[in-house]
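Researcher: Sequence recovery benchmark, item below. Answer with residues only.
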């Protein structure tokens, strides 16, 4: 008796699902017909690393295991950068890019897509070290180093002629140490 009840339940469920899928397949779908172009910002940089070091007291050293005793202890982090993007003299992005990781010791990642109308566009991208976060402001024992020679200011001023559905990629070229525009194409 129980097996026949399970079969009836299974067949009923299958019929209901078939009807629902058939009904949903009749719902009209209108694909995006907009002809906007896209300016895509995508890069990864190591940024400027700051180490803040301090000399441990005798009591602090005594509490540490013998193999971990170092007179000087350093904590490091990557400094944040500000991303400013203007298109045709209108600011479209103004935000701080913080390093990844709980201790902010991982690279900085930028990914942003800005849709624009096709045509000629004057694009300015500025990626600069946050001024209040510059090394040496926190303490006298702070040391700064640039992990992969990322400049403290990266700037790109370019005029782009974008067609419908074209994508212009702005990225960081590590060899040239500057922002560059990669070829246009459709997404």
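Model:
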């Amino acid at each position: 008796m129980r097996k026949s009840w399970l079969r009836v339940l299974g067949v009923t469920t299958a019929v209901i699902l078939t009807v629902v899928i058939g009904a949903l397949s009749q719902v009209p779908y209108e694909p995006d017909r907009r002809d906007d172009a896209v300016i895509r910002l995508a890069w990864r940089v190591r940024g400027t690393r700051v180490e803040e070091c301090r000399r441990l007291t005798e009591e602090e050293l005594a509490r540490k295991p013998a193999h971990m005793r170092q007179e000087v202890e350093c904590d490091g982090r990557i400094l944040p950068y500000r991303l400013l993007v203007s298109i045709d003299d209108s600011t479209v992005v103004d935000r701080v890019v913080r390093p990844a990781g709980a201790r902010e010791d991982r690279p900085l990642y930028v990914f942003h897509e800005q849709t624009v109308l096709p045509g000629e566009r004057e694009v300015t991208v500025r990626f600069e070290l946050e001024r209040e976060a510059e090394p040496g402001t926190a303490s006298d024992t702070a040391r700064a180093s640039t992990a992969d020679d990322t400049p403290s200011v990266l700037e790109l001023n370019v005029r782009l002629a974008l067609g419908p559905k074209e994508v212009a990629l702005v990225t960081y070229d590590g060899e040239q140490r500057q922002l560059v525009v990669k070829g246009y194409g459709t997404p």
